[in-house]
Amino acid sequence: MSKLPKGTKYIVLDAGGGTMDVTVHEAGRDNTLREVKAASGGDWGGIIVDKEFENLLTRMVGQYVFEQFKLKEKEDWLDMQREIESKKRKPNMDSAGKLGMRFPVSLNDLYNKHSQNDISTSLASSPYAGLIELKRDKMKISNKVFVDLFEISVTK
Asked: In the prediction, which pLDDT does 94 show?
């Protein structure tokens, strides 16, 4: 605060899990701070991105398989949620512009059981062909698909 000249106004964006809040502050004399605009915002936080990731998985494996996965494979679902949380904070793209993450074998097995098809084969003939790849327990998501997960939150 001591480095800010008196009268300097700045915006604070608090992007939390559930909400994003915006506040405007102004630097005053003697290192004081005045709130120019009270915090306001909305439900635009990280949980919207989480929901979009769930929607992506649902489009990949279908509603029934995804619901069964969350119900029967809770530990794998929690691991996947933790991993997407980590990727949201620090995405690590490879040289091809793809984000790698673990894809639970249990979800792949559920898909295979209920669709009588291999998920990799299904993805190859879907709108995600070339954008999402599965190999064993690894999923690679293109930068475009990953960035799209943030679109609703950023737009709002």
From this structure: 85
